[in-house]
Amino acid sequence: MTALALSLAAALSWGTADFGAALKARSLPVFIVIAGMLIVGSLGAAAALLVTEAPAPEAQTARAGLAAGAATAIGLTALYQGLAIGPMSVVAPISAAGVMIPVVAGLVQGDEPSAVQLAGIAVAIAGMLTVVALAEDAPGSGGIEGRRGTAVLLAIVGAVGLGVYFLAADAVGSGQSGWFLLIGQLVAGTALAAVIGARGLPMPSRSDAVQIAALGGLSFAAWATSTAAVSAGDLSLTSTISSLYPVVTVLLAVGFAGESLRPGQVPALAAAFVGVGLIAGG
Fold first, then answer.
1. Domain boundaries defined on the chain
2. In the 3-class helix/strand/coil scheme, how is the chain assigned residue by residue?
3. pLDDT per 10-residue tile (average), the chain, 282 residues
């Protein structure tokens, strides 16, 4: 149950952070937003290592961290750019389709969820995919329909990045999560800093920097809790629940960004929550 609670906390944190970052990326270059968030994440991971006095990183942890860093840099950039130029009610659920990568990998590696939990995985994923299908022509997308195709492609890249991250996290040994997070955040942050330098992008204002830092703290909480969940439970189960973050993003987009849901999307979102209940209760 601890692993499932951590996964749910990750979903709530990720969904909120993604919504805030997407709004910020509509007024600032996406590289600036993500790099600032990753700096905060790196500081958080470093602080956690100092407090826990974790043992030195293992070679496998370093390799997993490098893979996670690359996936984070590419996946987050694509996702946030997609959320910035397209309707969040379309982009966010598509990005969650990446959960199918760790789910399949977990089952192949020997995860043995119960029949009820398998049903929960199916219901949760079906609910998210139904939201996507019904959102294609959803109203209230802010006059950005012409860029919907590009946003969808970016969401798919973001989905693959998320799936690769979960696979990398699953390869981390006991007591190595802090190093995994630090290496991953540093690799991704360094890559994006290089892009910022190469493009000569301006630094954000003080108020923007404060907001980005707050989003970075929320995002780091999501990375940390999702990594801990994967380490503590079955990959197929924990990754499914963590990947329900688009439900939060979509609800925030409807409540605060003027987007609308089609009638069929409401039961689809409800189905995603039912899937979580089945997973937790199985």
1. 2-281
2. CHHHHHHHHHHHHHHHHHHHHHHHCCCCCHHHHHHHHHHHHHHHHHHHHHHHCCCCCCHHHHHHHHHHHHHHHHHHHHHHHHHHHCCHHHHHHHHHHHHHHHHHHHHHHCCCCCHHHHHHHHHHHHHHHHHHHHHCCCCCCCCCHHHHHHHHHHHHHHHHHHHHHHHHHHCCCCCCHHHHHHHHHHHHHHHHHHHHHHHCCCCCCHHHHHHHHHHHHHHHHHHHHHHHHHHHCCHHHHHHHHCCHHHHHHHHHHHHCCCCCCCCHHHHHHHHHHHHHHHHHC
3. 84 92 91 94 90 85 94 92 84 77 80 79 78 56 57 88 88 85 93 93 93 94 87 78 82 83 77 71 61
